[in-house]
Every structure is written in C-alpha cells, then in structure tokens.
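Many introductory courses stop at the sequence. We go one step further.
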Amino acid sequence: MSDDNSEISADDWGAAMEEQSTAAAAQPHVFEQFAAGAATAHNDLDMIMDIPVQLTVELGRTKMPIKNLLQLAQGSVVELANMAGEPMDVLINGFLIAQGEVVVVNDRLGIRLTDIITPSERLRRINR
C-alpha cells in the first residue's frame, strides 16, 4: 500500500468522523418527535397490529429413539404423553399463551380457549 493511498484513506476517515459528529449533534432533535406523549404510544401500537404471528395448537408430545422413528410407516400409531381430554397448548411464535379444548365449527377444527396464561406464569414457566 503506497503513502498516497494511506493519505487518501486518512482524509476519508477524517471526513467520516466529522460527518458522524455533525449527525450526533443533530440526533437529539430528531428523536424529540418520538417523545410527544400518549398519542404516539397509540400510533406505535397501531404500527404493530398487522405484524403476522404463528399461532400453533399442540396436540401432544413424546420422545422416542431414532430406531423407533425410522420404523414409522403409514398407519403407525404414535403414543403421546397427553391424556385424552387434557387441554391443548396454544402457542404464539413458540411461547405458551393459553390452553383450550378442540371444537368443530362448520366442519373445521378450532380451539376454545379455557385458560389464558398470565405474564407472571409465562415467566415462571420460562425459568424452569
């Protein structure tokens, strides 16, 4: 690398640092609009209302050795740990948020929520 290139690089670096300090001085003014109060909090909530999430209803779980997994074929029955009649877990993006029972509505399966998990209960389950 020649000295000419390092001088150009140093000048570019100095210009970038100056631009950063100028932007940092202007930055507090930019964020003042976000501290306007409760009206913006409502608008912020509206912004996330259309974000899609994955809702999953879990029928049950089981553990099995790979050799048993490889023996599964069409018609095989896999025994689950859950008992018949137990509530199903309702998960949002993989996190348990409720439990419910399976219902049929117009020939389609659905879930009737029977228990909503409180935020404190969610934290307790995560810490297990």
